[in-house]
Write a structure and sequence with these properties.
Elements lengths: L2 H15 L4 H8 L3 H10 L4 H10 L4 H12 L7 H9 L1 H11 L4 H7 L4 H13 L3 E4 L3 E4 L12 H14 L20 H25 L22 H4 L11
């Protein structure tokens, strides 16, 4: 990802947190909203324009670059202690997931049975765990990368396997699959590596889309679960019919 793209993403996140729209920026800079949208879509930022945007955000240009650098250094994997503390409190885990999915403070307390004081306390705990950076006026910045991974065999992975994935694969009566496909076969090692590369690329693209959609209001976004898995495996139905090597035949 280029540096200007990283700066653009940080700008969008800060504008979203302060609920500043392209229309607001256009009014303050005496420009058309279409022109502002074009600047962001093409990432055609001059230093003067960046400084103007920082003035609107009530911050210095150096602060923007510092926050962008921190954004690049996001956490790709939690520690076992962080995972255990999240699992010890379901509401803390919920807030962490909301932050990762770019929910605003008001959206969290409007959607879930969590009052303002409790939400502030939970955010403070996430800040102490170094999972978010708590900012003034109940704003916050996630320190977790979009494509972060659980510790292999760690607390969160075990929780997901036992509590989430089983229920995910058994939808309620009124829940429909948007897509479901099962594929099996026998592949060479080179083919397996190609499939793995494509799956990894898809996870990165999904993470980028989630980040881009964070600019939309909550009622324009839908909860979606995406499960991808790949491992050597044969159904037990077939496995039980394997010929036992070493058995004597007559």
């Amino acid at each position: 990802m280029s540096q200007i793209t990283q700066v653009s993403q940080t700008l969008k996140q800060l504008l979203r947190q302060q609920q500043i729209t392209y229309k607001d920026i256009a009014f303050k800079l005496d420009m058309s909203e279409a022109n502002i949208k074009r600047i962001f879509s093409t990432q055609n930022f001059t230093l003067q324009r960046l400084e103007q945007l920082c003035d609107i955000l009530h911050m210095r240009l150096s602060d923007l670059f510092m926050l962008t650098e921190k954004q690049v250094q996001q956490i790709s994997q939690l520690t076992a202690e962080q995972e255990n503390q999240l699992l010890a409190d379901p509401k803390l885990l919920l807030i962490a997931v909301c932050v990762r999915d770019a929910w605003k403070f008001d959206e969290i307390i409007d959607y879930y049975d969590i009052d303002k004081h409790q939400c502030i306390q939970l955010l403070a705990r996430l800040d102490k765990l170094k999972i978010i950076e708590l900012l003034p006026n109940n704003h916050f910045k996630s320190l977790i990368a979009q494509d972060f991974r659980w510790i292999p065999g760690g607390p969160l992975e075990k929780f997901m396997e036992q509590e989430v994935m089983v229920k995910f694969m058994a939808p309620k009566q009124n829940e429909k699959w948007l897509f479901r496909f099962y594929l099996r076969g026998r592949y060479s090692q080179s083919s397996i590596e190609i499939i793995q590369r494509k799956l990894n690329q898809l996870t990165k693209e999904a993470a980028v889309l989630n980040q881009e959609d964070a600019d939309l209001p909550l009622n324009k976004r839908q909860h979606i679960g995406l499960l991808m898995a790949m491992r050597p495996w044969e159904p037990s139905l077939f496995e039980n019919m394997r010929k036992q090597r070493g058995d004597s035949t007559t």
